[in-house]
Amino acid sequence: LALSVAATPSHAQSRAETLRYITGAAVNTLDPNIPGSTRESFALSLSTYDRLVSFGRKQLNGKWVFDLDTITGELAESYNVSPDGLKMTFRLRKDAKFQDGTPVTAEDVKWSLDRVVTAPVLGKAQLLTGSMTSADQFKVIDPLTIEVTLPKPDKLALPNLATVYPIIINSKVAKAHATADDPWAMAWLKENTAGSGAYKIEAFKPGEQVILARNADWNRGTQDKSAFFKRVIVQSVPEPATRANLVERGDADLVIDLQASDVQSLEAKGKLKVTSTPQYNAVTFVSMNNQIPPFDNVNVRRAIAFALPYDDMFKAALFGRGSPLFGATWADGKPSSGAYPIPQPVKLDLEKAKDYLKAAGMPDGFSTTFSFNVGQASTAEPMAALVKESLAKIGVKVDIQKLPDAQMSTQINEKKLPFFTEGIVAWLPSTDYFYRNFYTGNQRWNYSSINNPELVEIAQKARFEPDAAKYEEDGIKLNAIHFSEIPQIPLWQPSQDAVMAPSVDGYTYQFHRQVDYRDLNRK
Fold this sequence. Notes:
31% of the residues lie in helices and 23% in strands. The chain is of the alpha+beta class. A hairpin with a 3-residue loop joins strand 8 and strand 9 (209-214). Helix 15 packs across helix 16 and helix 16 (453-463) runs antiparallel to helix 17 (468-485). The longest helix is centred in the last third of the chain and has 18 residues, at 468-485.
């Protein structure tokens, strides 16, 4: 790997001003809206494009994380939401320019937002969660003002505009590359950019490497300055051990997707900076298909919940790197909070598990399969072995299935897996969002196939509840139903471990679980 730069005086400054980021994934498109875009592509788009607004950041256990509740202007100099919550008005910065030097206008914003809700792109489903579904909702008021109209107040409308998809595109450039068959220039924008972001694309080899050059005219970073690094090199290195070796040698500045064992080893050596942040918008769980016997019996699900060796699983899968969601004590048996997720009052108790199996009419247990995605084998395989061993003690015989990604995805989609482990992530981690997306309807993301009318009703009502106290009450009710039904068992929130050179500073855990190069600097 040609990553080293000779430490001669002529190279010293350029090395200091270059960020080398190594990833196991790949950037496969420059437009995050293209179906099949990788998360690395999402991260890249944050630096090459601007959005109207962006999330702030806050400290969580001494680490910087994105702040869902603080929305700041990016291309918008200011914004306001009408008292009835039905209109959002954005006033654009007068100095905002695209990378070709032309001013950013409200017409560009409208064209870009029209594209997200109209074209066959990924952002369409995302903006739907914020009640933005039609081009008619976006109106140019004057060259620097755009208005967004909502059918009813929706607390997720504004934060949706800070997600990766609603990029603001230079509409004149895009239109010049559009065709009758491709009116939104999707083919051209997949391999070219027309943005106003902090970085310009210098070189792009899909799946291999991207080189970014700082856009000196961009002034929307910390203290209204341009980004710190003059150049960012993003390189795909599939082998985890190689990534660990590169960052240890100093040939890479930052990596976030090492195996937990490698992170632990590098941290112990003390030469690199390790920032470990629980992914507070992500949950790893064990799921049971509530429509397939015997998991359609709530007492079977409760038996499983008290037969899992949680502490051993946490150590074996993650080396304890994360936030456990088990072992809680709920006063009076009630949820402690309306947030999601919250630690559940479950722990390993084999006698209790056996009692639940008896109550289910299955005192001698049963046989089942336990599946996981081969791509998650480094964490799921040791976990599965412990699940099998522990459940055998209550008479449940488990056959472990390690499935290829495509097969696992298909079987989840077709609701054929009885018992498995997976993970969920919400970019906008509010309680109703989690419940609506992962616990309702006959759709892929309802992993457990739970069908509880009361849960559906409360989750849908909570979406539009403006009163914080009532929203909290709704969340407590949802969490109580979840624990009563136990459709699946939250295990933990894994840590995102960012391993970096000691000189790199400013790392922030972002909603998309990737690096925002604009946050970073070198001390």
